[in-house]
Amino acid sequence: MNEFHRPDGRLHVESVSLERIAADVGTPFYCYSTAMLESRYRALEEALAGLPATICFAVKANGNIAVVGTLARLGAGADVVSAGELTRALVAGIPASRIVFSGVGKTDDEMAAALDAGVMQINVESEVELEALSRVAEARGVTAPAAVRVNPDVDARTHEKITTGRRENKFGIDWGRVPGVFAAAAALPAVALTGVAVHIGSQLTDLEPFRHAFRRIRGLVTDLRAQGHRIDSVDVGGGLGIDYGDPADGGNGPPSAADYADVVRQEAGGLDCRLLLEPGRYLAGNAGVLITRVVYVKEGETRRFLIVDAAMNDLLRPALYGAYHGIEPVGDIAGGDVGEYDVVGPVCETGDTFATRRPLPRVEPGALLCVHAAGAYGAVMASTYNARPLVPEVLVKGDAYAVVRRRVAVEEELALESFPDWLAAPGAEKKVS
Questions:
Q1: What are the beta bridge partners of residue 146?
Q2: pLDDT at residue 430, rounded to an integer
Q3: Which residue among 294, 319, 363, 413 is least packed, with the fewest CB closer than 10 Å?
């Protein structure tokens, strides 16, 4: 289901005109479709029917509490990687009993927050972290529910900056060392280590790396049980890719939820374990767009530039990963001429580029552009570089919409800063007569 469509020639999300939202909240802004969030969740839930599976949304993909809350009301849990994400998940309405706390560098304070909240599981990623978790739990008089994140040494064949399951990556414990970790955990006073977890990367469009990793985990679970260890849960992570509309993909889209669920079922379905899945991009990516306005059309010596009011601080993925996002005008494009443009932002970096040599209908200054597939790793990775304010986020449901994060004014950012005692604020100096 695609809720971004043109019922009257102009781009809408569900039943709301994006031009109408732009007139109300200004540009740039993010916009999310409730219907798409719901349909993606239900598609995965239905594909997993019959399995003892819990879908834990990866909050790092989109931490807006309205987005997380939409999924919470469908029954989703959460995968969090910081105390801040834990707080967001709880505020959004996800019960602690459905929250997994992951991450390679949890502090003592974060472990304490997770234990105090009563999270379902803490995924540990090193022997030293396991010892730290036991120490923190013992000091609080509780037993920490834990799983070991396994590094299966499987190449996800995705972008090198988002692959996480190879031996040289910082994540997880090498799968050959895991039996020793379970043996050592038995002597720790305040940890119940009863699960294994794996996550090999993000934006996977091939099922074979999943199959390879899950098969390795299945063998590990069998071995651990043979050694007398109790295994109650298997966390298969996330990583299922989405369609960004890149022509370089040759029209080969990512696997369907049903095909992915079949691999989970075949490789992990018979383990007599609770299964945890941690999709993020799959649920939120195609459900969101970034809307920006053309400021200038600049004729260069060799390129024609569309200079827009969004920038790399608003959507970092193209600058960080060289990522492709589909772009189209919001207004009526029927019968228009097509030109080739570089779509760039106003930030003082050459990397502040959303697209190069992109064929687009000819537009004039003031026209709105829609940057697609921006619902994951978009607003959540934004910054205030160049003192640019964080942009609004809007959630649509049917014919209604709401601003679910307002634009943050520069004055509000400045209110967080102060002059030290030895540096008087301008205008605060005493006047000498």
A1: 122, 193
A2: 53
A3: 413
**pLDDT attached to residue 249:** 74
Annotated catalytic residue, options 31, 56, 348, 370: 348
Q: Average pLDDT across each block of 10 residues of the chain; the chain has 433 residues. List them in order.
A: 90 98 98 98 97 97 98 98 98 98 95 98 93 97 95 54 45 79 92 92 84 88 93 92 83 86 92 95 97 95 94 96 94 86 95 96 95 98 96 98 96 94 76 48
Q: Of all helices (H) and strands (E), which one includes residue 209?
A: helix 207-226
Do 235 and 120 fall into the same domain? yes
Do 143 and 252 have their domain in common?
yes
CB-based contacts of 279, cutoff 8 Å, min separation 6: 44, 55, 57, 58, 238, 240
Does an H or E element contain 318, and which? helix 317-321
Provide the β-strand partners of residue 276.
Answer: 54, 235
Same domain, 305 and 357: yes
Which residue(s) pair with 364 in the sheet?
none
Residue 154: the pLDDT is: 55
Report the distance separating Cα 138 and Cα 185, nearest Å: 14
Secondary structure element (H or E) that encloses residue 181, with its range: helix 178-185
Q: Are residues 258 and 325 in the same domain?
A: no
Note if the bond before 28 is cis, omega within 30 degrees. yes
62 assigned to some structural domain: no
Give yes or no: residues 334 and 257 share one domain. no
Closest CA to 317 of 94, 30, 4: 30
Distances in whole angstroms, Cα of residue 96 to Cα of each of 79, 90, 99, 194, 231? 11, 7, 5, 18, 21
How does strand 173-174 pair with strand 191-197? unpaired
Structure pTM? 0.93
Check residue 429 and give its pLDDT: 59
Would you call 56 a catalytic residue per the annotation?
no
Question: Could you tell me the residue range of the domain that residue 260 belongs to?
Answer: 103-277
226-279 pLDDT, tens per residue?
Answer: 999 999 999 999 889 999 988 877 666 788 999 999 999 999 988 999 999 999
- The total number of structural domains that make up the chain: 2
For residues 396 and 358, the answer to whether their CB atoms sit within 8 Å is: no
Final residue before a domain boundary, out of 214, 244, 277:
277
- Does a structural domain hold residue 216? yes
Q: Output phi, psi for 403, to 5 deg.
A: -80, 115
Instruction: Decide: residue 418, CB within 10 A, 0-12 exposed, 13-18 middle, 19+ buried.
Output: exposed
The answer to the question of residue 161 being in a domain is yes
The answer to whether residues 231 and 308 belong to one domain is no
